[in-house]
Amino acid sequence: MDVLDEHRRNVSAMAYIAKELNNVVHSAVPSAGLAPVVPRDPGPVSIGPPLSTATRYLLAGIRLALGWIFLWAFLDKLFGLGHSTVAAKSWINGGSPTQGFLGGAATGPFTGFYHSIAGAALTDVLFMAALLAIGVALLLGVAMRLAAGAGAVLMVMMWTAVLPPASNPFMDDHLIYAAVLIVLALLGAGGTLGLGAAWARVPIVRRFAWLR
Questions:
Q1: Region of poorest pLDDT, from 11-25, 105-119, 156-170
Q2: Looking at residue 83, what is its pLDDT?
Q3: What local confidence, expressed as pLDDT, does residue 4 receive?
Q4: What is the pLDDT confidence band of residue 52, given thresholds at 50, 70 and 90?
Q5: What would the DSSP string read from start to end of 186-212?
Q6: What single DSSP character describes residue 161?
Q7: What is the pLDDT of residue 76?
Q8: pLDDT at residue 36 tops 90
Q9: Residues with Cβ < 8 Å from 55, sequence gap 6 or more?
Q10: Counting CB atoms within 10 angstroms of each CB, which of 120, 122, 125, 134 has the fewest?
Q11: What's this model's pTM, rounded to 2 decimal places?
Q12: Which residues, including other chains, have CB under 8 Å from residue 87's CB and lie 6 or more apart?
């Protein structure tokens, strides 16, 4: 019995010591268990391969030029600024931004398809939305991969609407524009004279690289 009593006393003493040590630790660091976990900074995000300064600025200039081409096309068709679209045929005055090209200028094997969608409300909305979104994205240097992909698709579709090209068996400026857009996205052209670097640090863009 003496041995059992001694053992119980030892166990009780050890439990008491452990409890007191635990209280001391929590008193010294009262918020240790509640301290927020600070995520480690993943560091800068690369949006393209290393390029010389001259190359980066050249690509940025090309990006800005193409962005203005898309945005100007949107503004001219929307307001009829008198270059490709007169005011009376502007979109805000009831004109169709797709009727003239798809309904009259389309030639080649896809003529029937383009004539069937020319001037339709959905076609006009999608076309104008694409011009605006691509133009703004290129000018700002954000969402370059999306802008390049959408722009390339739009250019290829416009190329198929005028087959064969008037001055070449198959090649025209639409295909060149499509290729240049893809190159700009692959080389990270939005990082110079643009917001591409800041855009790449946005959490959702970090997670989904195709948004860059």
A1: 11-25
A2: 86
A3: 46
A4: very high
A5: HTTGGGSSSSHHHHHTSHHHHH-GGG-
A6: T
A7: 97
A8: no
A9: none
A10: 122
A11: 0.78
A12: 79, 80, 81, 93
Contact 128, 79 (CB under 8 A): no
What amino acid occupies position 121? A
**b/e burial code for range 106-133 (CB count within 10 A of at least 16 → b):** beeeeeeebeebbbeeebbeebbebbbb
pLDDT tens profile 86-145: 999 999 999 999 999 999 889 999 999 999 999 999 999 999 999 999 999 999 999 999
What is the C-alpha separation between 152 and 148, in angstroms, rounded?
6
In order of 66, 68, 70, 92, 151, the CA distances from 89 in angstroms are 25, 22, 19, 8, 24
Q: Would you list the DSSP string of 64-109?
A: HHHHHHHHHHHHHHHHT-SSSS-GGGSGGGT--TTHHIIIII-BST
Give the confidence band of 21 by pLDDT, cuts at 50, 70, 90: very low
Alpha carbons 201 and 27: distance in angstroms, whole number: 40
- What is the tally of helices (H) and strands (E) in the chain? 9, 0
Instruction: State whether the Cα torsion 47-50-51-53 is positive or negative.
Output: positive
What is the rounded distance in angstroms from the CA atom of residue 184 to the CA atom of residue 152? 11
Are the beta carbons of 194 and 60 closer than 8 angstroms? Answer: yes
**DSSP SS3 for 162:** strand
Tell me whether residue 5 is exposed, middle or buried, using C-beta atoms within 10 angstroms of its C-beta: 0 to 12, 13 to 18, 19 or more. Answer: exposed
